[in-house]
Every structure is written in structure tokens, then in C-alpha cells.
Amino acid sequence: MSSAQGEPTGSWTAAARRQLERRLPWENLLPDRQPFYVGSWVYVFGVVTIAALIWVVLSGVVLAAFGPQWWHLSSAGRFVNSLHFWSVQVFFVFMVLHLWGQYFMASWRQGRAPTWMIGVVTFAVSIVAAFTGYLSQQNFAAQYIAINAKDAVNSTGVGGFFNVLNFGQMYGLHVMLLPIAVIALVFLHIIQVRMRGVVPPIE
Amino acid sequence: MDQPAGYLHWGFILISWPNLLVIGLMVVLFGLALVLPFPGHSSSVNEEKKP
Predict the structure, then answer these.
(1) Which fold has domain A105-203?
(2) Which ipTM value was assigned to this complex?
(3) Which has the closest alpha carbon to A38: A100, A94, A101, A93?
(4) Closest CA in chain B for residue A95
(5) B34 and A39: CB-CB below 8 Å?
(6) Are B36 and A34 within 8 A, CB to CB?
(7) CB-CB neighbors (< 8 A) of B47 in chain A
(8) By CB count within 10 A, which of A101, A144, B34, B42 is most buried?
């Protein structure tokens, strides 16, 4: 079967392509102009959060490549360790500022609830990612946090498959599964913003 | 740096001074973002034609 333009109508790949072309045109994905109300520092908070995330990922890749002995004992390792830590601080500070800004402009309006909800889930997953990071430091602080957290985590009922005393599990989650989740969610969040445009001010 | 942070204890509120400082700075930054003019921005000139 073919359509009038010669495209197969029964093909799921062609249908997916048409759907993507309609919902995500290139001029929306990579715009060169924004509505006039975007000219405010409040809209910079989200971009700074993404910039911080890039630094978090880059410094994290270097830390994972060289290992705990390097990041604790060498000056270059301590520098990258600090870069990772402070990038996370910037990431969370600006993510919360972005949250405040979007909350006060009620940015879930006009069909933007999925954008808001993906942001909420990103925030929650980021907290777990940061927590597993504190448990992966390979120092006394990590042990102190794990020992103090175990009873609280067990009381929630997730202790059976999320054991804060298990370094291998926490480190695996921190360097693989959770970063992939955060990056995928942020990507989806940006796609959602581009699909519907930036929310207009409340009239 | 090698000792526990001091805490503000006011009624039921208990928060370390460093945490309170960070929250205070965030509130200040948020307020500044609302009032400071955005560089290169003139109202309604660069409006995007979008539904």
C-alpha cells in the first residue's frame, strides 16, 4: 500500500517519521528566536542547570576512569573530585531556582503538565543519584552516611533491593543507571519544552 | 572546616548556618533574576510568531 506521495501507509516506521515531523519540526527543536517574554534572567536557571549537568557528567567520567585512589591521593584527582562535587551543588541550586520560577509562573498550563511532571521526576531521580554519590566517595563520610541512612531506608521498605551498605550496588547505580536516567529525563524535558514552546506569562 | 557546623535553633526550626546561608543566597538570586534587566532585550521587538 502507498499514499498519494508514494510513501507506504502500512509502515510503522513511516508513520513514526510523519508523527515526529509533525510534532517536532526542526524550527521548534532548534529555534533561533524566542517569544519576547523569554528575555528574563528567570529563564536562564534551566540552562545553567543543564550546563552544570554537563560538567557533572564530564568530571564523573574522569573520576570513574581513574578510580578512588586517584581522586583521594593525587592533586589532579582532588581537583576533579571537587569539580564533580561543586558542579552537583550548582546543578541542584539552579534546578531548585528553576523549580521556583516555573512554579510561580504555573508552567504546567496549556497542556504542559507532562513537561512539569518529567521535571518533578528528574528532581526525584537526581536526589537519589546525589545520595548514591555521597555513598560512593570511598571515605569515612560515605561510611557514616551509609550507617546512618540504612535504618531510614529500610523503614521505607526498599531496603531489600536498595542496600546502602552495599558499595558495589551504590556505585553501579551512581555511575551507570542513575546518570542514564537523569540524562534521558532531561532530554525528554527539553523535547517537551520545544514541542509546546515556553509557557507565556500569566495574564 | 574540620568540625561540625553551627546550628540555628529557633522554636521548631533547626537548620545549620551553611544550609541557611545557601537558601538565603538562592532567595537573593531569585529576587535579582526578577528585577535585573536582561541584556539585549527590548520588549515585544523580537517576538516569535508562534501559536
Answers:
(1) Cytochrome Bc1 Complex; Chain C (1.20.810)
(2) 0.81
(3) A101
(4) B26
(5) no
(6) no
(7) 35-36
(8) A101
CB A152 within 8 A of CB A193: no
CA distance A171 to chain B (A): 26
User: Quick one: DSSP state of residue B21?
Assistant: H
pLDDT (tens digit per residue) in A28-75: 788 888 888 888 899 999 999 999 999 999 999 999 999 999 999 999
Q: Which residues of A touch B (CB under 8 A)?
A: 31, 33-36, 39-42, 44-45, 93, 96-97, 100-101, 197
Nearest CB to A36: which of B26, B36, B45?
A: B45
pTM of the model as a whole:
0.87
Domain ranges of chain B: 1-35
When pLDDT is cut at 50, 70 and 90, the band that residue A2 belongs to is low
Indicate if the alpha-carbon torsion angle A19, A20, A25, A31 is positive or negative: positive
Domain boundaries, chain A: 40-101, 105-203
β partners of residue B15? B8
- Decide if A143 contacts A76 (C-beta within 8 A): no
Per-residue pLDDT band at A6 (split at 50, 70, 90)? low
Q: How many angstroms separate the CA atoms of A132 and B12, rounded?
A: 30
Across all residues in chain A, what is the average pLDDT? 92
Contact yes or no for A31 and B48 at CB 8 A: yes
User: At residue A183, does pLDDT exceed 90?
Assistant: yes
Model pLDDT, residue B40:
77
Residue pair A78/A70 in contact (Cβ under 8 Å)? The answer is: no
B48 contacts A33? CB cut-off 8 A:
yes
pLDDT, residue A22, reads 87
